[in-house]
Amino acid sequence: MDSATSDRPAHRTPLGRSADNGLKIVVVGGFGVGKTTMVRSVSDIRPLNTEEVMTRAGEQVDDVSAIQGKTSTTVAFDFGRITLNERTVLYLFGAPGQERFWFLWDRLFTGTLGAVVLVDTRRLADSWYAIDRLEHHGTPFIVARNDFGGPQHSAEQVRDALDLSEDVPMIDCDARSRPSSKNVLITLVEHLHALSTAQESAQ
Amino acid sequence: MTRPGRDEDPDRLYTVTRGRSRASSDAFDLVTLVVSESDATPGMQSEHSRILRMCQYPTAVVEVSAELKLPVTVVRILLSDLLDSGLITARHPQTAGSAAHLPDSNLLEQVLVGLRNL
Ligand SMILES: Nc1nc2c(ncn2[C@@H]2O[C@H](COP(=O)(O)OP(=O)(O)OP(=O)(O)O)[C@@H](O)[C@H]2O)c(=O)[nH]1
Ligand SMILES: [Mg+2]
Question: In whole angstroms, what is the distance from residue B1 CA to residue A48 CA?
Answer without folding.
Answer: 12
